[in-house]
Amino acid sequence: MSVDVQVEIVIDRPVIEVAAYAGDPSNAPQWYANIGSVSWQTSPPVTVGSRMDFVARFLGRTLAYTYEVVELAANERLVMRTADGPFPMETTYTWTEVEGDRTRMTLRNQGEPAGFARLTAPMMEAAIRRATTKDLSRLKHVLEAGDGH
Asked: Does 3.90.180.10 match the CATH number of domain 3-32+69-144?
């Protein structure tokens, strides 16, 4: 069973600001509650082929994984993919302008769990939906409060 979770939020900031902040993996620990650290394997800034090591806590476990940027359209779309571990995942950010200086950010996580993770896919999908909904709310708060320079 595959997992496919998409959530979105409207942020009262221009697309260029939201994309610059959210699209920089170095900022992930500030707005993703479960991400503890991000270390670059390649040199910033983000480009197709960039690789970063993430350490996260999810469902009571510590997970370490490497994301590679596979698609990038400035201020529109960022796609990162990992193929390692029991739960290969693709994460897509999209940014669209709404009513002038507002941005609709969509966050989509897709994956094909293997082994034991396959049995827990429905629970994982619900947990991912809850977590990413909270993360986008946190991102909105950070950017609208002016904390995301």
From this structure: no
